[in-house]
Amino acid sequence: MKHLFYFIRKIIVFCIPLVLYFTANTIYKLQNDRYKKEVHGHEVYSSIEKSKKRTKIKKLIIGDSTANQLYNTESDTTSGIYTLACNQAIGMVGHFLLLNNYLKAGNRPEDVYLIYNPLGYWDNLDQIYTYHYFLKPFYKKEYKPFFTKTVIEQINKIPYYYICDLPPVYTSSWAPEKKDEKRNYTFLSPVSKEYLAKIDSLSKAYVFNLHYVSPFVSKYWRDSINSFNIDETKGYSFTKDLNYYMKNIKYIDDSCFSDHLHLHNRNLITYRNILDKEIGI
To answer: Residues 90, 44: contact at Cβ < 8 Å?
Structure first.
């Protein structure tokens, strides 16, 4: 019994400094929202913060990391555009929430450009990045009323989703492992369908032009994209526009990319200028 007591005491003595360290570290990160600049996906928090500000700019850009590379949400100060582009791992529901924030803040854009790699529309909140990029920033009281049944079902499949709002978790870059789901679609996920429709509804309610814009896509993906079942868009308000988007994908040589998806830095200015002309900047 005496040996057990000493053993327990040693464990307590060992654990106390660890608990103090993690507590102090969490408090440090919470000060002035410091963690938002330090964790992976800091661009998502920047986009959320920007989405709640008032601006008179009439051209808004939303989109994934390929859009963010060209129109960086944290550093782009180009006159005439306002960008909330961040990452496809927030799902189309996340992009809807950013746009909704922007409109609720009193902003009235004339043109909204959804710049999105065609490979990103498959996201169904079912990848390992979902926990950190979507759950931690958006699993909040202010956003939950906008979650559809499909979104809630997908969230419930994510391991440890119920602790994502604990300070030691959301101030870190930790995320649980998650196995990929089997998909019965090639192009549009159920979440993407629902929230593309919601984004389209916002364009009608707030009277702005919604443009589906393809970023530059590597020829590496041409065959995969050509195998998409375009019929998955049928029956939706965005069908015509998204079909036009698919027919006008901008394929360029794979040597222009660092990872088959994102452009080499040396090519950014060239291809940014091309996209600027399309958008009319």
So the answer is: yes
